[in-house]
Amino acid sequence: MCTASDPGYFHLASLENSIDESALRSQIDSNIPTFGKVSGVDLYDASNYTKTLPDGAPCTARIFALSAERIRAMRGELRKHVKTVTPMTQCNVLAALVWIHVTRARHQRLIQHGHTNTSIGIAVNLRERVKPQLPPSYMGNMALMTRATASIARFNTESCVTSATIAPAIQAINGAISNATNAWAQRHFAYFQSIDRIIDTEISLQFNRGPDLYITSWMHFGAECEWDIPGTTSKSPEYIRRTYSPSDGGIIIMPRRRETGPCGKEAQYEVLIRLAGEDMERLMTEEGGLVSWSDRIVG
């Protein structure tokens, strides 16, 4: 995996001269505190919940391409009056929009099955959050999930979503991510270290036919890297796609070019949304919904 880093990006061949990954991993392990048996943590206990659809219900996947300029403008407007723990990011805005509109698409069925809250699991890059910090190019798995929770009813108060609904969703997401400090990470590392068989640990999200979803970002995967794949017309990819795997509740912000195009426009944010088929249909047809934020939809 190629990870872009500020201020530029690197050619895959540069990996030959990268820092020894095993040494960095040993450094991480040596800093994990030992607490004996560690109690469960934020998002990694088994979860039992009432599913709102049978396991065989069909699912689908679509990519929603949103204008970077419009997302930035929304962030700029919200920053004027919405307080967050750390500076509001464009990804905070993206995640909030998806969380809100997916929940609205599921709303009636969730209420019928007795669900009152919805959570979004957010994969957090810990490379710059742990101490000592790791370089952005570190190839090991350094992402854990944190969680934001909100009332389902809160996302459905307005007939058409405005900043009154978006703002509290952003605050919840921003607060959850901001909470992922070094102490938070070390507590999770210690928890995993205390488990004899790590395969027994599951993410405690009710996303599969339930009220929750999870979001992860592949934005810096390496859309500008020169992959030099034989038989292609260019060294760098025009776009990067995930293999088709319809499921329910999984959201991915797809790899994105950092430079502007020939017309001076920024690359769009492409968000892969995987949902139950009937929920996707409602997501696509909501008046003033996520489709109205999208320049195009793939799938």
Automatic annotation (TrEMBL):
Lineage of producing organism: Eukaryota, Fungi, Dikarya, Ascomycota, Pezizomycotina
Any Pfam family hit: Transferase
Keyword Transferase: yes
Xref: PANTHER family: FAMILY REGULATORY PROTEIN, PUTATIVE (AFU_ORTHOLOGUE AFUA_3G14730)-RELATED, TRICHOTHECENE 3-O-ACETYLTRANSFERASE
Gene Ontology molecular-function annotations: transferase activity
Source organism, top-level taxon: Eukaryota
Protein name: Uncharacterized protein
Keywords: Transferase
